[in-house]
Design goal:
single chain; 1 helix; mainly beta; six-stranded antiparallel beta sheet
Length: 103
Amino acid sequence: MGKYVGIKKYLEKNNMYYYVVSTNDFGGALFYIRIDPISKILDFFETSDFNQEVVYSKDMHDPDFMLEAKNSSINLHVTPYVLLKVYRAIKNNDFPEYLDYCA
């Protein structure tokens, strides 16, 4: 059975790209990310309020696609797929409407 992670552009502002991540696979997930392509930083948020505290911040120069477990509602089973798609987007400097993962 295939796996699907929806990664849809939510907002583009000040050279930053914001996406909503959702899936029914891996036990379900709904969270938000902010991509800074200049500094190559990916931030994870539990809600669409991007003024809230960043739950995870990932330097995309680091090839390790795992995040350390924290007390958060972000499903860590989904994050490796998000990291892969964001890594490719940064590498290609291409931030389309959808960065979905499907396998």
